[in-house]
């Protein structure tokens, strides 16, 4: 009697569990599709950089910036009164960020949700607060060059609206703009533009995408990050913008101090990275590894309107980068 009661209650529990899971899965799928609204909704775990939000109007809160009045960058020239102590930048960052963030390591959703409120204080730390980060559009940041040199921007996941990208182009007249996107087919702002989705490799991938409110299968050209970088042949990227990306694919594996980019002598001076909601685990893995394996510190920790996380990263270690942006 008791036993069969237990059995049927187990069964009940199990069915409730299934029903709840089904709801959860359905909800997640709907969310995923809606997040991109009219755009692509990658189902695959390993497809990346397709989605992008349109940005708010450009603003320019800082004093006018005149690129043409700068002197050429000269690494051999000694700096007498460096504006920033780079060791302090790193120390301030570590001292502030890691103690605050460890309690979220088992709680990725909580980390994304609280990312901005918990970590914003670190922007006021010694040396960090002296870095001249400009917000040129909503949640878009840049440190402008302090000396003249070739300038390169690479955007993974170019948005439909590129007004703010244009502002950067105007501020840095010799900026070479490289970009890729699975969402738009061409760009008038990016002189070197390619239409593909970043993924694990292969020629193309079938994706279920929402187009004009109808779910349909679409073949999307696909390229791996290694392939793309090898093709571009860049050795220095002044700014890398990574718009929301999906899946298990982790950019940080490429960007960390001993990662793929470093092994291929590709230096990045500054980055803006965003992960969408639900990808807190990747964000945590990235931040954890920054304690020991990173040339970057981040600022402007932001929880986005759609529940993702975004931040601005700057290289405090590469002499060419620090000369140009920090010292
Ligand atoms: C760079 O600075 C060094 C030392 O001041 C100077 O000798 C050299 O001419 C400079 N190079 C350029 C290209 O200005
Ligand atoms: C973090 O976010 C969660 C919601 O995901 C909230 O319930 C929690 O109170 C927050 N924790 C802290 C320490 O702010
Ligand atoms: C800078 O760009 C110009 C024009 O593209 C090129 O000729 C030159 O070699 C570049 N200089 C360096 C140091 O990469
Ligand atoms: C993309 O746009 C550029 C500049 O507007 C134009 O020169 C080029 O022909 C276009 N490419 C394609 C494939 O439409
Ligand atoms: C897309 O293709 C898959 C596999 O071929 C199929 O199961 C699915 O129903 C298709 N979706 C649509 C919306 O046609
Ligand atoms: C990277 O640079 C180092 C030192 O300049 C050189 O020894 C190495 O061969 C380079 N590696 C690649 C993959 O170009």
Descriptive notes:
By secondary structure, the chain is of the alpha/beta class. It has 2 domains: about 1-35; about 65-325, Rossmann fold, CATH 3.40.50. About 30% of the residues lie in helices and about 25% in strands. It contains 9 helices and 12 strands. Strand 11 (about 295-305) and strand 12 (about 310-315) form a beta hairpin. The longest helix is centred in the N-terminal third of the chain and has 34 residues, at about 1-35. The model is unreliable at about 20-55 (pLDDT under 50). Bound molecules: 2-acetamido-2-deoxy-beta-D-glucopyranose (NAG) (6 copies). One 2-acetamido-2-deoxy-beta-D-glucopyranose (NAG) binds next to strand 8. One 2-acetamido-2-deoxy-beta-D-glucopyranose (NAG) binds near residues 186 and 188. Keywords: Membrane, Transmembrane, Transmembrane helix.
